[in-house]
Amino acid sequence: MTTRRQLLTAIGMVGGSAALYQAMTTMGHASETQYKGSPDLSGARTGASVLVLGAGLAGMVAAYELNKAGYQVRILEYQNRAGGRNWSLYGGDTYTELGGATQKVGFAQGHYLNPGPWRIPYHHRTLLHYCKTFGVALEPFIQFNHNAMVHNADAFGGKPVRYREAAADFEGNVAELLGKAIDQKALDADLTAEDKDKLKEALRGWGMLDKDMKYKSNLESSEHRGYDRPPGGGVNGAPIPSALLPFRDVVASQVWKNMAFFMNHEMQTTMFQPVGGMGMIGKAFQRQVNQMITFNAKVTNINQNKAGVTVTYADTASGAVTEAKADFCVCAIPLGVLNQIPNNLASAKKSAISAVPYSNSVKIGLQMARRFWETDDYIYGGHSFTSQDISLISYPNYHLFEDGPGVLLGAFASGAGAYRLAGMTPEQRIEAALAQGSVFHPGTYRKEFQTGASVAWSRVPWTMGCCARWNEETRKTHYQELVKVDDRVVLAGEHASYVGCWMEGALLSSLDAITRLHKRALEA
Amino acid sequence: MSAKRIALLILALTANPVLAQVPSGGDTPGASTNKTPPPVTGEQVYQQVCQACHMADAKGGKGAAMIPALAKNPKLAEPGYPIGMIVQGRGAMPPLTDLLKPAQIAAVATYVRTHFGNSYKKPVTEADVKMMMGQ
User: Which of A74, A169, A433, A490 is the most buried (most CB within 10 A)?
Assistant: First the structure.
């Protein structure tokens, strides 16, 4: 029997590599990722040294790969913790934000809040590769839950509805309207008679229309939106269809935004999370490079010349100032912070560093005494979306069905909502999250609440923002300057990638940066 | 604000045109459906936007880097300074023109210039803001 690989090789031999690529693409390969496997860093000179600034994922993967290739590597990290934005907060942890507000996290053992990254797309191959290599156990992240809810202040009298109902009714009504347009000959210029028949068949099947091309309350539509009485056994086994939502409200609810959200390549299932919290990834990277890290080191100057790179840093506790020297430097400090560190990088590089603003985001974890969303509302993981500042609440994907507590994500805010929540004290944020989240679970949300924690990224002392926000213009003017090797220094991080605000971007950026830095080192 | 200062700021704005932010992907909660009424007064804008970074007391913060204090800040004497910052951003601070309208920007610029130990009485107008936005 011919394996697929043999078949591809044969195609390659016959038709050349272009044909091979085309065949692979047709079969669904070769387009998911830019990850090409471990970087080729062979031939490093004995004794060549690299200083890595920042022990986030970009910095640590650089240190790991460069060290493996034979470089002498040292990492300077501002915090007393490795991992950077890869981070989980557990019971017993203390977190102090800019401005001084300190939270003592009170979550039960085994529960956590992921303030930063919290889900991993299946096609983030670089991250998945290192998770496997470093022994990080992954479990499914429940991304898409038809039984979670959608709330919009302008629809359904401000009451939430199930995603399943709103989405089915949106599609059903759109299918019916498009069918009408066909019958009223509105599409005759675009479609042949045969096309029209085929499309009408598709609309019937996709939109759950009846034989007259109508979307109605019946057993067909209920197959998508759910039943008033679901199918059962015995005497009353026959299902009873559910009533449709008013289409005007379905449109006003903007459920299409949620539907479109799940269509994004990076939001498509399958998604994963580490068992025990996203911070497990940072901890696993740290185990590989721990002996190289100097913690509590605040970089105060970066200077390079013909002889090498000198980085000045202050111990955050004692204030003692030290110089570290190396032949080369991988700088994985977020741009908003790097922008304020004196350096003698090229002026185009400095312009690029200062040209990229950072996004804001707020996450709030709420521990509930019991998992009422599961027991009372049959919601197991996934997200309920709202038009309030919290944006959504997300139900935990671990410890399902347990009697004990659960920590749900009570807010994942961005934009205006995130600024509003970030400006509050931690106590006010919890109060806002409880008030807003109660729209989905009135009666239980406040009653079962035990303890909470919040992270406003604009007030995180070591990033002062969430992620780099490029636009078309800044990409064009500054991106290549930002990623270019500047003599002995190269930047790495999600900000130096087109996979911004994802761990994958940090890793891909770093692997590319060290590959180019290595080439530069060999030329020296 | 002086004519020369205005000219310089307009020049700076033209050199770095403020474009609508193109969504740059990343892990987000999805397209916003937010229906919360926007802030109107200078105090409301300050509390609902600026305070996220500059703090309730406008004293900013210091960590790996620094968020400047707006309290007792002599740079605020020049009205073009707060307007320029809000319209253009600087470093990690994004331009806020996709979030705030000129009237809101004028209101909050006036507010910070007359609070937190600053007393620059002349109000910043919507027209000032629009001029600096090239409108």
Answer: A433
Interchain CB distance below 8 Å, A502 and B89:
no
Q: Which fold has domain A89-147+269-277+359-459?
A: Polyamine Oxidase; Chain A, domain 2 (3.90.660)
> Domain A164-231+239-245 carries which CATH code?
1.20.1440.240
Residue of chain A with shortest Cα separation from B68: A340
**Nearest CA among A459, A405, A404, A401 for reference residue A429:** A459
CA gap A463, A149 in Å, rounded: 33
Confidence of residue B5 (pLDDT cuts 50, 70, 90): low
What does the radius of gyration of chain B's CA atoms come to, in whole angstroms? 15
Inter-chain touch A416–B55, beta carbons under 8 Å = no
Model confidence pLDDT, tens digit, residues A304-356 = 999 999 999 999 999 999 999 999 999 999 999 999 999 999 999 999 999 99
Chain B partners within 8 Å of A423 (Cβ): 47-52, 56
Task: Write out pLDDT tens, residues A263-309.
Answer: 999 999 999 999 999 999 999 999 999 999 999 999 999 999 999 99
Residue B27 CB burial class (10 angstroms; 0-12, 13-18, ≥19)? buried
Q: Cβ of A388 and B36 within 8 Å?
A: yes
Distance from CA of B123 to the nearest CA of A (A): 25
The whole-angstrom distance between A356's CA and the closest CA on chain B is: 6
Do A354 and B91 make contact, defined as CB atoms within 8 angstroms? yes
Chain-centre distance for alpha carbon A305 = 38
Contacts of B38 in chain A (CB under 8 A): 416
Chain A residue numbers with beta carbons less than 8 Å from the beta carbon of B89 are 357
In CATH, which of 1.25.40.20, 1.10.760.10, 3.40.50.10490, 3.40.50.360 is domain B3-17+39-132? 1.10.760.10
Q: How many CB pairs under 8 A join A and B?
A: 168
CA–CA dist A52, B64 (Å, integer): 16
Helices marked H in A155-234: 163-183, 193-207, 219-225
**Tell me, what's the ipTM?**
0.91
Count of alpha carbons within 13 angstroms of residue A75, beta-carbon side: 33
Q: What's the CA gap between A359 and A334, in Å, rounded?
A: 12
What are phi and psi for residue A198, nearest 5 degrees?
Answer: -65, -40
